[in-house]
Amino acid sequence: MRSLGYYIKPNAGRIALGLVIKLAGTVTDLLIPWILAYMIDTVVPRGSIAALLYWGGAMALCAAVSLAGNIIANRMAARTSGNITRRIRYDLFEKISSLSCEGLDAFTIPTLISRLTSDTYNVHTMLARIQRLGVRAPILLVGGVAITLSIDPVLALVLIAMLPLTGLTVYLISKKGIPLYQKVQRRADALVRTLRENITGVRVIKALSKTPDEKRRFAGVNLALYRAEKKVSGTMALSGPLMGIFLNLGLVGVLLAGAYRVNGGMTLPGEIIAFMTYFSLILNSMLSITKIFILTSKGYASFKRISEVLEAPGDLEEEPGDVCDNGCHIEFEGVTFAYAGSGAGVKDVSFAVKRGQTLGIIGATGSGKSTLVRLLMRFYDAQSGSVRIGGRDVKSIPAGQLHTKFGVVFQNDILFADTIAENIDFGRNLGREALERAARTAQAAEFIAGYEDGLDHRLTVRGANLSGGQKQRVLVARAFAGEPEILVLDDASSALDYATDAKLRRSMASLPRETTKIIVAQRISSVMHADIILVMEAGRIAAAGSHEQLMAESAVYREIGISQLGGDFDG
């Protein structure tokens, strides 16, 4: 498991320097009350102005060193904790990006968002506070107790008597609070999930007038988080008043005991003032240690959640495999797969497609059409059987090399808040000519030309300033632009009118002849010209063949054809 020390190590030198500076500032803090007591009890009775100015200057110097040391050390703590958290956040994002679909399903998107945001923030807060208070508070506690014992052991007993009570308070509150913080994190995950669902489905919610229902659902999740935060806040808030009570009781004890000892000539007035100051420092340091312990527990719990993702096993590791070149470009052999927690998937699927051919896949919703594409691209691994490209099992092809073979348009695909050109190029550094050619082939050139800035027209988030058909054509252009080895169009024409869909199918003939095309569709007109058509039903291949063969031999396909095309079976 990758420990927090792995991330701290590169910044260890700067952290150590910061702690040394913090140590120097804290030690000077401890000297100030002692100098004040010495001035009151020794320097002032002498009546020496020079000595008074000397020791007064020493106090001012200590105060300046303490102030400068704490400011410098705190700034260094902020910088190092920021550097460490930035590295953790980057590694976490990189790991999330490399997770397979199965890995994403196991963690769920909302909890990954929460771990990348709130959990990394908790780790950042823990690292910063430990550096700021982790040295100062213990030194003030130990140093304060040691100095008070050296000044007056009897009065120190009053101070020491308060420490068990403060320690017990720290223990009990922390024991109660840490599980409550974990509960808050789980409630926050639920809130993120609900918010994400609402933002993603806002149009459907408005269209179906379900806004009041969603408000009630969000209110329930929000209330659960509020109650969890209220409970943990109320529990942790007890530490402040209890420490205040102990502080005041201790001060009263010091004053009472000190008054008797001063009256009896056993203690000097300056020592009482010093004691009161040290007592305040010690109890405040106990309160700081309480905060450190709570923040450390909270930060450790968050880092543990982060580590679960960072150390997630590579569920789609590259595996050795032989090459079996039988002339097929894509081959499924006895492939069976089921999604976790669901029986849905595909069962004993076998088919083969030669290079340059077009494969059409059609079937009812949930029949396993998109699952075949996900297995081909190795978003998931089949539980049995093999999936091959060019004779190689996809498990033996490095992920980067495998995915560059594809140009893909998925169902519910996404456009980014960038120019049309950048959305088509998608970071591949394709030439302008390639982008324009892809736009023409995808039947997007006409509407793009309607913008004054053409391909440089800027899209909003998710391409909200385009119609559904326009978005699909930009997405198809993205798939065409890289001249992929395998083109996958998964329900890519559902928002297109029949005329545009027909033009798109005809324009695909201009693609390189060696490009293998896979068209997943609901419309029979989108796949009827394919070389091979698979009819999927309940995860199995119900029938396979050309359009003419299936119309003659498959009742399922013929029923779809009659319902969609009427008597026009030739397209």
Based on secondary structure, the structural category is: alpha/beta
Overall shape: elongated
User: How large a portion of the residues is in β-strands, by DSSP E?
Assistant: 5-15%
The CATH class of the largest domain is Mainly Alpha
Please count the helical segments.
21
Report what the structure shows.
With 571 residues, the protein is an alpha/beta fold. The chain folds into 2 domains: 307 residues, ABC transporter transmembrane region fold (Up-down Bundle), CATH 1.20.1560.10; 137 residues, Rossmann fold (3-Layer(aba) Sandwich), CATH 3.40.50. It is 64% helix and 10% strand. The protein has 21 helices and 10 strands. The strands form 2 sheets. It has a 6-stranded mixed β-sheet with strand order 6-7-8-3-9-10, sandwiched between helices. The chain has a 4-stranded antiparallel β-sheet with strand order 2-1-4-5, covered by helices on one side. Helix 18 links the parallel strand 7 and strand 8. Helix 6 packs antiparallel against helix 11 and helix 10 runs antiparallel to helix 11. The longest helix has 50 residues. The chain is elongated. The two termini are 59 Å apart.
